[in-house]
Amino acid sequence: MMAIHLSIIALTVIVIAIIWYALSRDQGLDRNQKTGSAAVKELRASGPSCREQRPPEGVANPGDSPPLRAAPVPDGGEENPHDSQAYLRDGIALIFADPPLPAEQGGALLKIEGVRDDVRQHVLSHIASLKNVDYVHRLQRMMGDPKTSMKDLSVMITSNPLLSAKILQVANSAYYGMEQKLNSISHAIMIIGMVNIKAIIYHEGVLQVLNEQNFRNNPTMQTVWQHANYASICSSYLQYLFGDLNMGTLFTLGLLHDIGKFILMKLPPLSAGDGEPPPVYSSDWTLAEEERIYGINHALVGQLAVRHWGLSPLIVQTIALHHAPPSLSADAVGVDREVQSYLLVLFLADQAARLFAGGGAAVRVDRLHPSYHALIDRHTLSQLIADKSLIGQLREAEAITSVYA
């Protein structure tokens, strides 16, 4: 009898233990789910800027970036992140289309030696008249140094009252939705993030050098800067195509590759016909159109400018040749392997930035000369271009550029 009672007690204890374990497990899972939800909310509230760029791990995590706008979005339809990814992948795939378009092949690329002496001297005279050019050099060295920290940027910003005001303006903008107004530069820098802070600092530095006072009233300048901003993000992200490249240098190349366009806008065109009004510069002009109107193109103007400012030969060469990959073979370009790698990344980033700005519309994509195809891992490129972390950073840049530009 005693044995029966003991068996019943033991069985009861086992049943209670099983029920207790099940309840504890459910409660634990519920706590974990709540904790996970809170973490996601906190991550979203902090904004994508608090995370730095990193390579994707296979398929991107949808929680790593803000919601995407589909490209294209059907009339009355819902935004679909996968449409944006497919659009960018398809656009980048056109770069490798074979055969290339006839108009993109075989033409001799204008070199600085081929520019008329009077045109070259006029451009150099204008560049020499620009002030504070050493600021760009110091900026490039600082931004290209991987050891540069948020603290270093904070010191640089706090020493410039106008820049401090700009940073606070961005951090307090509607995009970040802060409940209380931020007055701390260090807090603002944490909110905005390293990538966007660098873009803002470069933007202010370039405007300072160009002595540009009416940037907000010039849609063409805003378009060129927005493209440069996108290209800088894409360039530094595509560093993973060639792992030995400096991300800071790529960021600088993306921001400065079209610096010649800003300078061309300030130059008078070559003498027009009798009674014809001078043409107004367009960011959509081809190199041939620029050469016809000014006697020089923006890539060569950029070459002259960054050389005058004392930037590295690598940056000078890459900016001068950033339109060469569609028309000149790898051998004909005549640069070493390091410059070639930077040139290819900048070219690809230039096309990606153009596609992103197009937002799903028909966008012209330059096709890469076949001699470069074997140098690029297309699978990795496709993953990087369509990674949601990259697209999220581009969306963030799009949202805040209007605040500081």
Cα Rg: 27 Å
| Total helical segments | 18
Give the end-to-end Cα distance, rounded to a whole number of Å: 89 Å
Mean pLDDT: 77
Label the overall shape: globular
Order of helices and strands: HHHHHHHHHHHHHHHHHH
**Fold-level CATH name of the domain at 81-149 and 193-270 and 279-404:** Hypothetical protein af1432
The first-level CATH class of the domain at 81-149 and 193-270 and 279-404 is given as Mainly Alpha
Percentage of residues in strands: under 5%
Largest sheet: none
Query: What structural class should be given to the helix and strand makeup?
Result: mainly alpha
| CATH architecture identity of the domain at 81-149 and 193-270 and 279-404 | Orthogonal Bundle
Number of DSSP E strands: 0
Helix content: 55-70%
Poorly predicted residue ranges: 21-79, 102-106
